[in-house]
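Recall that a protein's primary structure is simply its ordered list of amino acids. Everything else, from secondary elements to tertiary packing, is in principle encoded there. The following example makes that idea concrete.
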Amino acid sequence: MNVIVVTGSAGLIGSETVRRFAGEGFRIIGIDNDMRAKFFGPEASTSKTREDLARNVSNYEHYSVDIRDIATLNDLFKQHRGHIRAIVHTASQPSHDWAARDPQTDFTVNANGTLNLLEAARQFSPEAPFIFTSTNKVYGDTPNYLPLRELEKRWEIEPGHEYEPGISETMSIDHTKHSLFGASKVAADVLVQEYGRYFGMPTVAFRGGCLTGPAHAGTELHGFLSYLMICAVTGRPYRVFGYKGKQVRDNIHSFDLVEAFAEFIRAPRAGEVYNIGGSRHSNCSMLEAIELCEQISGKKLNWSYEETNRIGDHIWWVSDVGKFQSHYPNWKFRYGLREILDEICAAMRR
């Protein structure tokens, strides 16, 4: 049976990937040691999702392996040599704030862990598409120097600017403040490109905006829409950091992102990079998101404002997904912002 290897398999994107490809009959090798609980506490643990996958997905095999453990990874890849159809690498330390507290753990998970997986793939399955979930934080704070206008509830780019449809892959990742998290993801992103360009492997870095969905275990440090809805439903206080609450994010449902993975696996390319996110199809400011969460939950959000923004945070981010759509014209959005938040709210209430 053909195998798909999924790292971070009990997380938001990993679990969506598992279900998507298990449904096609693939045998899924899931790698996840629940470091999310270490990063963000017990409420962010992926253990419930892992248990659900083990119970309900018959062709799923779970391995509680740390991606920094290269010997165990090599053994696992070697066992399945000749059968690995694709590797989907979603495991990471995903928070700027957490990275600043423990830069060595952040870098070894994000950069060294990715290198370990690339090398295991090169040795035992070099023909298999290697998909990496990178981040828009590889661009650092360069987007904050775009010409922006302040509107009533959001910041918006000046009309007619080349990035008005969204920020494309032409933006430089150099000469910018990335945050330590952004720096570790840059290292991983460049490694993924290099294994594609240098070794000719079918690799891709998807530079995501806000990735979200009902399976997201949001926390204050990561998972903006999910955590916002948790606070709206439960009455927990929420803090907005800087930019008058008008900072803009695009939001892509995990389903739509994994469908992009499936398109790449069907027709892989070597050393490719794509910005991927909600684009102009699905984006909002913090103030707009708060209003929507209040409408959907039927409750007023208990929120406060702090003037100091998070280091490396973007004022305005909207992804231009045009390059990906030009290479894969069959891919289209299924979910808009309202549908995403409706699903998240329903999941919170369950």
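The two ends are 35 Å apart (CA to CA). The mean pLDDT is 95.
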